[in-house]
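Recall that a protein's primary structure is simply its ordered list of amino acids. Everything else, from secondary elements to tertiary packing, is in principle encoded there. The following example makes that idea concrete.
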Amino acid sequence: MRYRLTFVAGLALGYVLGTRAGRERYEQLRKSAREIAQNPAVRNTVESASQQGREVAGKAFHTVSEKMGDRMPDSVADRVRSLRERGQGPGEDDWGTSNT
């Protein structure tokens, strides 16, 4: 019985200390991620990559729709159309990136 009690006490102490250290580390990572995400260079790179992705998706859709004709599912056509429209909004900030 004494060994079980010692084991449970050690387990409880380890849990408490581990969660406290884990929370602090989590907060550090969260702060770092927020700082990186707010960096203008990172935001410009993300916006540039997403714009290129939209362009490639549009070209791929055009190529596939030429080959498939009317057999293109409406759900695919609607999704590509919405992606194109989303990338053409006026929501840019001073750095030339969108506010999304």
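The chain has a mean pLDDT of 77. The longest helix spans residues 2-37.
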